[in-house]
Amino acid sequence: MIHFHGGPITPDTCALRAWKGRHAFISFANPQQIGLASEVCQSFALDNGAYSFWTKKRVVDWRNYYAFVDEWKNHPRFAFACIPDVIGGTSAENDALLAEWPHGKFVGCPVWHMSEPDERFIRLCHEYPRVAIGSMGEYDAKKPRACRAKLRDLISKVVDKNGYPIAKLHGLRMLNKDVFTHIPLSSADSTNVARNISIDKAWKGAYSPASKETRAFTLVERIESHNSASSLCYDAEKDRFTPQLTFEL
Q: Please, which residues have CB within 8 angstroms of residue 229's CB and are 6 or more apart in sequence?
């Protein structure tokens, strides 16, 4: 699984420790470190910033985001861009934004929210090579048990005979090992590193890192020491789908 670490991670020296040779998730709401990420990362993905705009009650002209994606979509380390979505919106509203998207299905990744009908997720997996999943409400990733139970049930509807999802699945704000280790995600992101390197009270003890840069490296290494499940296979004994690893270490 690809672990995308969201920015901005400040100062730039911390971003360098977190991103060098790894993967960055750059939000259109805070794009100031896109130049740094594009140079030092293995790959970077673009987030439309809808969640940030929604929490700040800001209205955005998506044409500006389309232009931003157009500027970066041919960069050799560009991975994908999340197609704009309406937080808490209807399927019709989000499908309208898919129809408006100017950059095609290879560049763009549609977003499905857990408040939407399962049927829309299934349809998107059949129509797009990659689908992003947004957790919210009772299935928020901050409630890992409920979130992963919902995801297992959902993803079981779009797996092949080997238990592999038919589309690459990206978990938005899902770099929580209690979620992604149970689900066959292709990638996930979070701003865990950006948020926690400055919380001094979280770093105590004689062996606590002395600098933010070391904190960033420590968090990234801890997150990336875990991988997603390889597949989701039906267990006849338990009468349910369960996560599987291809090779046990």
A: 181, 182, 183, 184, 243, 244, 245
